[in-house]
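In response to reviewer comment 3 from the previous cycle, which asked for concrete evidence that the modeling workflow produces usable outputs, we include below a single protein chain processed end to end. The sequence was submitted unchanged, and the resulting structure tokens are shown without manual editing.
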Amino acid sequence: QVQLVESGGGLVAAGGSLRLSCAASGTIFSINAMGWYRQAPGKQRELVARITSGGTTNSVDSVKGRFTISLDNAKNTVNLQMNSLTPEDTAVYYCNADIRRDIRFPNTYRYWGQGTQVTVSS
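The workflow returned the following structure tokens.
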């Protein structure tokens, strides 16, 4: 079993900051990558930012320069520092991780957290 537990969401005024964290636990041999997606009401889920175990990152254009993703490999934790938030950032944010569970098998599987609400007031 693998669990992803998110924390750090909440309500913030426009221009403010929030830091999201997601910790993976359970039967984990290695984590290839972790990332954050978000889904606003009436919209499709979209990638926000992603980081590989080697530190390669990518993010959606709308958050470049404002959001920073980081990975603590030792703690199996991914963080998303969100600055200069706008009402357009309001969404449920989901953590995911591509995990290899067993040294005997090369397969990786994608796991999702339960989501955390981020609301930015204007």
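The longest strand covers residues 30-39. We consider this sufficient to address the reviewer's concern, and the full set will be provided in the supplementary archive.
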